[in-house]
Design a protein that fits this description.
27% of the residues lie in helices and 33% in strands. It is an alpha+beta fold and 346 residues long. It folds into two domains: 120 residues, Aminopeptidase, CATH 3.40.630; 187 residues, Gcn5-related N-acetyltransferase (GNAT) (Aminopeptidase, 3-Layer(aba) Sandwich), CATH 3.40.630.30. Helix 9 crosses helix 10.
């Protein structure tokens, strides 16, 4: 099922499943084609965390090989969504790489089509947030642009942001050292004994949008054990009870420093706790701006607006390839109840 031999330019190209012994070659290929990624470098522990240790299961990965050398990679990270009481099995198309010497041979398309075919019987939905360079390739294969998911921004250093706004898409070093972050590490905060009760209460307000099930196991993997990304947290307590937790990291955005708020979890309707949480996040590090995105009409979204967040000049393009009928329709942008933590490229 997996082994396919393709011949092009008089060189045999074999597509096969990823094996543990491929790790070094895959990491070399990713570093060559994609650079250091969001963590700035690609050590084995980051790759294993991302693709092998997820509570949703290991990523489905295929490699393209020529004469024993890995020249292509296609990885689909397993994901889960809830839509009311129904669970939707999904995969997210993430790391993709083709060696420069072998570009133009259709390796990206072949890897992607075969991976989707492999997953068709076990997955309901394939989705991705491609950049401008890779988007045309997905559209040629029949994937659909769902829409643009906006990102809200709370500006802290207006002059810096105004000066550097046009450089946001440029790979450049920030103009000043990384700011100190005055907040506890996410791994510590996620050990709060009240977390399970908060998550149970928060899930009651998810409605029928497509939402990631946020339980302690998922949050600990996604934020508590993520190598190199240095996720931090702030907590809000009332009467000795945990009533809110926000998870975030400080990262470069072009020449600026950004606090990216991945999650702000509160009970349904508790915009007051959300506002306090996000105010604490804003003041946790002297960054240029704070970025966030929460489901529309949620308490977290209202809390962000009350902290001065407005729609920013950038967003995330969401594309999808449903493999069977799903309700709510994933090709409607309003069906997605996602946060920035669901959309981050990591």
């Amino acid at each position: 099922m997996f082994r396919v031999s393709l011949v092009n330019r008089a060189t045999a190209l074999e597509i096969r499943p990823y094996r543990d012994t491929d790790e070094a070659g895959v990491l070399d290929l990713l570093s060559l084609t994609l650079g250091g990624g969001p963590a700035g470098r690609r050590p084995p522990e980051f790759f294993r965390w991302k693709h092998l240790e997820s509570p949703f299961g290991p990523s489905h990965m295929l490699v393209a090989e020529v004469d024993g050398r890995i020249v292509g990679l296609r990885a689909f990270m397993r994901w889960r969504f809830l839509a009311g009481e129904r669970e939707v099995a999904a995969v997210r198309a993430v790391d993709t790489a083709t060696h420069p010497e072998h570009q133009g041979r259709g390796i990206f398309s072949r890897l992607t089509r075969q991976a989707v075919g492999d997953l068709r019987d076990e997955v309901d939905l394939v989705f991705n947030t491609p950049n401008e360079k890779s988007l045309p390739g997905y559209l040629k294969m029949g994937w659909t642009v769902v829409g643009r998911l906006h990102v809200d921004v709370r500006v802290r250093r207006p002059l810096s942001v105004a000066r550097e706004l046009r450089h946001l898409r440029i790979t450049a070093e920030p103009g000043r050292p990384r700011p100190d972050v005055r907040a506890e590490r996410a791994a510590h905060a996620l050990g709060d004994p009240g977390l399970t009760r908060l998550l149970s209460a928060a899930s009651e307000g998810s409605g029928r949008s497509l939402v990631t099930p946020r339980n302690a196991e998922f949050l600990t993997w996604r934020y508590g054990s993520a190598p190199l990304l240095d996720y931090r947290a702030v907590r809000q307590h009332a009467g000795g009870e945990l009533v809110g937790i926000a998870l975030f990291r400080v990262r470069p955005r072009g020449r600026l420093w950004e606090t990216s708020v991945a999650e702000a979890i509160v009970r349904p309707g508790d915009a007051r706790s959300a506002r306090r949480l996000l105010a604490a996040v804003v003041h946790a590090a002297p960054v240029d701006h704070v970025a966030c995105r929460f489901p529309a009409m949620s308490a977290a979204a209202r809390g962000a607006r009350r902290n001065g967040a407005v729609r920013g000049p950038w967003g995330v393009t969401l594309i999808a390839n449903p493999l069977r009928e799903i309700r709510p329709d994933p090709l409607r942008i309003g069906s997605w109840g996602v946060s920035l933590g669901d959309l981050e490229v990591f």
